[in-house]
What we know:
By secondary structure, the chain is of the alpha/beta class. The chain folds into two domains: 2-107 and 211-247, D-Maltodextrin-Binding Protein, domain 2 (3-Layer(aba) Sandwich), CATH 3.40.190.10; 111-208, 3-Layer(aba) Sandwich (D-Maltodextrin-Binding Protein, domain 2). Helices cover 41% and strands 20% of the residues. The strands form four sheets. The protein has a five-stranded mixed β-sheet with strand order 9-8-10-7-11, sandwiched between helices. Strands 4-1-5 form a three-stranded parallel β-sheet. Strand 2 and strand 3 (45-46) form a beta hairpin. The N and C termini lie far apart (67 Å). Residues 1-21 have low confidence and may be disordered.
Amino acid sequence: MKKIVVYLLLVLLLSTGAAFAKNIIKIANETATPPFNFVDGDGNIKGFDVDIAAALCDVMGAEKVDVIQDWDGMIPGLLSKKFDAIISDMSITEKRQKVVSFSASYYDETGLFMCKKGRTFDFSPEGLQGKKIGVQRATTFASYIKGVYGKSVEIKYYDSPAGQVLDLTSGRLDLVLASDIFVNKTLAGEDGKNIQITGEPVTDRKFIGDGVGIALRKEDKQLLMDFNKALDTIKENGTYDKIYAQWFK
Length: 249
């Protein structure tokens, strides 16, 4: 009889622990791409992605735990269960969908080229022959440059967008391709005095993907459903619009 009671108590404790763990969602963020994600002067993680994640977890009744992760380790970290979801300006691409699942899109991203003021370029593969182009490694923009200009240009890979801007202003790069929001934020800052947008916006879905979504492990089907329902809720109740207006004035 004692053994049965002990067994039942053990089952109860384990089930309670599982339920508690289910209400904690570890969310990976790069914190290197303002205004999507960054760390402020007080060491706090902030940005559009961070606020979207908080709003979704609030709707889902879950506690959000932030995990800072370098970009090129995002999907490996997710698959190894270092965290439960990626909410960090990750575009939905066919290549990524082979290994992870994505929620519905919560943001549409476009790429823009930056160069030093006064420069002009012919954006054909022949016209960019020998030029040095900076991109963040393991991104859709890196895939675009490699796929369209790989045989013509010298591609410089960076761990964060900030490093690209530094090398562009110092003349070590001819061009940088990055997200429209990051580019416009850069132009509005001190570096904007010497930088301009050039060429046409990059929207090729073959490389850029079908918007930005939440990446999850393929087996976490219920969590995917929960995130999609929460996305619908924050779009319907106005929370999404408030967050968007705050970060993308």
